[in-house]
Amino acid sequence: MSPPLLKLGAVLSTMAMISNWMSQTLPSLVGLNTTRITTSDTLTQISPKEGWQVYSSAQDPDGRCICTVVAPEQNLCSRDAKSRQLRQLLEKVQNMSQSIEVLNLRTQRDFQYVLKMETQMKGLKAKFRQIEDDRKTLMTKHFQELKEKMDELLPLIPVLEQYKTDAKLITQFKEEIRNLSTVLTGIQEEIGAYDYEELHQRVVNLETRLRDCMKKLTCGKLMKITGPITVKISGTRFGAWMTDPLASEKNNRVWYMDSYTNNKIVREYKSMADFVSGAESRTYNLPFKWAGTNHVVYNGSLYFNKYQSNIIIKYSFDTGRVLAQRSLEYAGFHNVYPYTWGGFSDIDLMADEIGLWAVYATNQNAGNIVISQLDQDTLEVLKSWSTGYPKRSAGESFMICGTLYVTNSHLTGAKVYYSYSTKTSTYEYTDIPFHNQYFHISMLDYNARDRALYAWNNGHQVLFNVTLFHIIKTEDDT
């Protein structure tokens, strides 16, 4: 084949490959094979984790802003994520548009060459026919040379027709890219086009302002309980499990104490995943048996009620020694003033954002609940509050931000029925339902780090999420 024909063959081969690539790859690059381009608010699906969440907002009687804020898990809000993804899509389309423009210029140049060759071939064909009619007058040798050249060119005629078709296809692709760019640009203008660096700076500034705002949040008031999430099924009907609310973010140890009496074994797991899989890391043999299920781990130590006494024990996991013990004066014990389910649950130890607490009942307070704030080192009672709620009528209780929340039952249909604020020394009756999925709760404790309730529900270890109502402090607040 002559050099011009070799060049033409290479061009045609390249055109065929490009045509095939354009038909298969272009739709997936711009999302036409999976996503319908539209100018609605839902250009792409954004993960809920990318969004800011505000549970509620209101004003108090003094006109102060009251709101509930939850920070996102990632650094982009959904609107900005849409803009960034749209910007990336536009860049891809623009790059393809430039490539098609270069291809189009080459196509037009080669197309002129093809048209010229086609004209020459048609003229050669006409001459050949004329010569063939009068071939008797020509020398046989010259005739044979012309015939061979014509035979060589004849197969190119259908190829040239295909080349012209491919050239038209390139023109159509170019037009479709232009239309798609126009649509995407319109969408970008509608939702707002921002440079990524500008977006990132806006998010950083917003996060800084949010952190400053959250520093002003007072302790929250319980508004809602959702769940539960079943973490594991193990043990007897009664028991306790917990994490340390003062532990660092990297420290996620879990402690497990099965049954409400006649036991001294505490099992430790390095993480929640290990707890679920049963990969125990360490076992502690306490010097005393515990009573009830209302223990708490706080700042690396276990606080529990010594069996058949009103003595509180502080046990260090690091040293394996008892660091302190103290009698809780007048506190009933050994099923004198338990929760409704019994189980020697007379003394309930708990922790919240403020510190360490003991909830119990005394004869002096007619069997009603007493709340005492404890010194975490010496176990000395710092201050006590006497409520009017009978301890034996309570299903369980827990502290959040210095307020005691009491449930009315440990069985199905239980709800948070009563609360007592140690800040104002006032109480109120509430109606906050929660789902007692396994029908018998023998432990319910709040963890301030996780903002969750840990529960032992009839041999199931479960978690409840809580929604808190926060008040933003102003400079006028004391």
TrEMBL record:
PROSITE patterns for this protein: OLF
Localization: Secreted; Synapse
Ranges in coiled-coil conformation: 79-141, 170-216
Domain Olfactomedin-like: 218-470
Disulfide bonds: 219-401
BP GO terms, sorted: signal transduction
The name this protein goes by in its record: NOE3 protein
Taxonomy of the source species: Eukaryota, Metazoa, Chordata, Craniata, Vertebrata
